Fold:
Amino acid sequence: MSDVKDENRARFGVPADSMVFARGVRKSYGPLEVLKGVDLDVPVGSVACIIGPSGSGKSTFLRCINHLEKLSAGILLVDSQFVGYDLRDDKLYEVKDDLLCQRRAETGMLFQSFNLFSHMTVMENLIEAPMQVRRIPPDQAKAEAEILLRRVGLLDKVDRYPRELSGGQQQRVAIARAMAMKPKVLLFDEPTSALDPELVGEVLQVMRDLAESGMTMVVVTHEIGFAREIGDQLVFMDGGVIIERGAPREMIANPVSPRTREFLSRVL
Amino acid sequence: MGVAHPTEIRIEPGVAEAVSRLTVVPQRRYGIWVGTALALFLAFLIIRAFASNPAFAWPTVVGYLLHPSVMRGLGNTLMLTAVIMILAIVVGTVIAIMRVSPSPVLRSFAGLYVWFFRGVPALIQLIFWFNLSLLVREVSLTIPFVGTLFSVRTNDFMTPFFSAVVALSLCEAGYMAEIIRAGIKSVPSGQAEAASALGMPYRLILKRITLPQAMRFVLPPTGNEAINLLKMTSLVTFIAVDDLFYSAQSIYARTFETIPLLIVVAFWYLAVVSVMSVGQHFLERHFGRSDTRRDPMTMRFLRNFISLRGISR
Structure:
């Protein structure tokens, strides 16, 4: 296993502390090119925030990381490994579904619309994937789920159905559900965009706690305040490419590119 | 100068008294009164006709209600319905999954299946399968270098009952496939996406996430299909399967008590349909449980009770 990682590190120049490593990532839908060569490094334990106007390709890039979308060109490594491929003799062989699923389970993903399983209770949502994919026994899965629910402050909602919860509570359950798979990295796709303003804070607080506990996170967001406070790097995307990247505070205070400046002036 | 905004509104005693003296006079709906009178009159005529016309021969009806061959026919009708419905759901689910599959070949195959089996009248399909021996004399399985494993004459296994099961299951599966496909489509795509982000493989997502949620949408029309199927099985009379209708027919062919026996048949169909409707109601409630709040019955009762009290006052 580590042989593969070492080989990839040597071959592609992946830093030793890399969690997400993207080089020249392109993605097209027919004639429409959504990503036009994206490079990104997210070190272990760091938080990368991606901002940009809608249609800039930031969500597509996020979905490429866990191979929900296949790349058209370029490489994307999570923990120095390909998610959807095995590399042999300069050929990327698509892996079988079961292996792809095992690897994909190592990256958790959060969605704008939460996507909790609506026919399951909160507890059932949390234990479903650990039991079905990881084959963890029910008692252990439940015990771990309770720890996670306590962490997001929703232990009293174990037997509720998603639609009985507020949006903020649903998103916190979704975070707990993703954490139940013990992922190496969490991907957030505009996690607070669908929330009423007074519910945004509770979700950001949970994300802040995660970041402080050393979780590696890639966050597509419109919450500039969160990016400034929690982000280790800030990335501005527009038109399928990264326009500017840097330390959040400096970049927000003194953007170099006029496009970044214009975007920030509209959202701040 | 702006308008002065009062910070407090005081209601004078005289005004309060004038408001409380008002009563609401309901709108007169003469059309409904006339309609009600007509409906009652019509009901009276029908009941009188049923009671007074000796051709209905009610004592004969009662006499045949539990007649052994009627009972056997009813048993066969119920068994046919159950077996066909189960097979139709299984085949229909497979066809529905093919219809949403990424492969265009599977999608077209499933589309053709639905097009054909929904398009050709059930009676024609039934008679076709019953006469399969005209098309295929025998069915045999031959493996090269091994020889013929078995060989059966078509007429030996295409009994009336078996052809009824095959024909009506395939036909009903066409309808079920469409219902289940619509159910699968009704599940928001985010559900499957979240499941695959959690590392669940496609077949597990179908089994654990998509199909259970589709059930809620699939159940009400499936109940209707089961009720339709129950009645559709009366077609098997044409190929001499001993169902409820056939058993009644064979009695009135001898005794000429046509109307009483048709009433017996209608009574049993109505009875079974009523039982099925009640069952459907409970199934829907079971699968819709994540839709409603806790204690839906209690809550609904309380709410109705409160609103009734509100109106009566």
About this structure: The interface with chain B takes residues 66, 68, 97-98, 101-109, 111, 113, 115-120, 128-129, 132-133, 161-164, 174, 177-178, 181 of chain A (CB under 8 Å). The longest helix of chain A spans residues 197-212.
